Amino acid sequence: MTDKPRLTTSAGAPVPSNDTSMTAGERGPVLLQDYQLIEKLAHQNRERIPERVVHAKGWGAQGTFTVTHDITKYSKAAIFSEIGKKTEVLSRWSTVAGESGAADTERDVRGFSLKFYTEDGNWDLVGNNTPVFFVRDAYKFPDFIRTQKRHPKTNLRSPEAMFDFWAAQPECVHQVTILMSDRGIPTNPMHMNGYGSHTFSFINADGERFWVKFHFKTQQGHKHYTNQEAETLIGKTRESYQEDLYTAIDSGEFPKWTLFVQIMPETDAEKVPYNPFDLTKVWPHGDYPLIEVGELEMNRNPENYFQMVENAAYSPSNVVPGIGYSPDKMLQARVFSYADAHRYRLGTHYEMLPANVAKAAKVQHYHKDGSMRFFTNDFGNADAYYEPNQHGGPVADPSVAEPPLRINGDAARYTQLDSDADYVQPRALFNLFDDDQKKRLFSNYAAAMGPCSAEVKERWYAVLARVHPDYAAGVRAANEASDSDVNAISVTDETPTETGA
């Protein structure tokens, strides 16, 4: 016996050999009774969990959020209760479309998800590196995601499907403009912003509701790759984001972001000339300026990546007192769909895994049994397994109830009109680009649309023409000249992505 720790089976029994199978004679065959071999092989078959349906390729880190400014007049959430307060955070950044083995520097939207371990439970802010999204109604979300995945016959990604779908959903043009701009390929997670994107609620101690949008502004500055730079890098490594993020934190260069919020009084939602709950729109900063809240610092690499990052389960359903939802149709659907995806991917009790379990709040509920019940929740009295009961089981706390949410209108499936409002903000964004940024925008389109049919291209040109005639003309010309050389230009400037920024 050495002074090293003793190897055991998962049941705790000591293992006499970890090198050879138990066989009948030196040449075999292998005996079925070698349960250590069977256990080792069976576990290997189950080492991989299903990858995420969306955002499969990701990178994560641990850190802290520190409050720097007082916003308690807007929210009673304990995380914001005092200046200087620190809260532990688990982050995950990701690409949307690619599988878990995809290259890090593909042109794609990036997920930007944060789990705050507050004393009132976990608050998950599940957003992107863009302030808007492609669609505003979750009924079209599965269709959109299918266009980003592989064609059922060719098993290849299909630009034809992407632009065909986008042309039929003109509200997409705002997000597609950002995607095809310089910001479409950030150099790594540290050099991009993060947004809650949706409209959420803040609720203060007086029971007043405010609408809120969350903005995490990078302190490292914005850096992006051109298509040519990204292609060259992918030829060297497909893991550049993981390499950059891990190395920076490991060397003590902790990335930081500043959290800002936009605040809208509840009744303003009825007055503004746009739908403030439409995920394809932003709130002009001139009307609702950024208010500084605090600083996010990611300062620790997980000791076990699989345990803390792959097992991380983020869901907009995880809110805490002082933070709530809004009528945003996409948000309403995500409140269900994300948690349901985790139940499928990780199991019934996914929120009790180390990455997801609340660290400060005492978790007490009546969810029972099911697969992977690896914890107890009997609360010291096995008789308290239903509610209401007379055995001291946990009860609801009416004091954390939200004020009534203002709604109006009849229940119906409202037709999504091709409204001119869908083109106003993309037009303002296009007009913010300088000539060089527009040239790169057009070039990026040509690279993306090359395989598309003439019919789909024409449909998309028609959408762009309603944004601005120069936009459509520039993309058309770039497509027609797509076989000419395009000079690669390094991009380190900040490309506007928000109307009024």
Overview of this structure, please?
A hairpin with a 2-residue loop joins strand 3 (110-118) and strand 4. The model is unreliable at 485-490 (pLDDT under 50). The chain has 2 domains: 58-363, Catalase HpII,  Chain A, domain 1 (Beta Barrel), CATH 2.40.180.10; 421-480, no CATH class. It is α+β, with helices and mostly antiparallel strands. Helix 4 (173-180) runs parallel beside helix 9, helix 10 (435-449) crosses helix 12 (469-480) and helix 11 runs antiparallel to helix 12. Helix content is 27%, strand content 15%. The protein has helices spanning 35-45, 141-148, 159-168, 173-180, 227-236, 240-250, 305-310, 329-345, 421-432, 435-449, 454-467, 469-480; strands at 58-67, 86-95, 110-118, 121-128, 194-195, 200-203, 209-218, 256-265, 291-300, 323-324.
List keywords for this structure.
single chain, 501 residues, alpha+beta, Catalase HpII,  Chain A, domain 1, 10-stranded antiparallel beta sheet, 10 strands, 27% helix, globular
Tell me the major beta sheet: 10 strands, antiparallel
Which percent range describes the beta-strand content? 5-15%
The named CATH superfamily of the largest domain? Catalase core domain
The tally of strands reads: 10
How many domains? 2
In a nutshell, what does this entry contain?
The protein has helices at residues 35-45, 141-148, 159-168, 173-180, 227-236, 240-250, 305-310, 329-345, 421-432, 435-449, 454-467, 469-480; strands spanning 58-67, 86-95, 110-118, 121-128, 194-195, 200-203, 209-218, 256-265, 291-300, 323-324. With 501 residues, it is an alpha+beta fold. Strands 1, 2, 3, 4, 5, 6, 7, 8, 9 and 10 form a ten-stranded antiparallel sheet that branches.
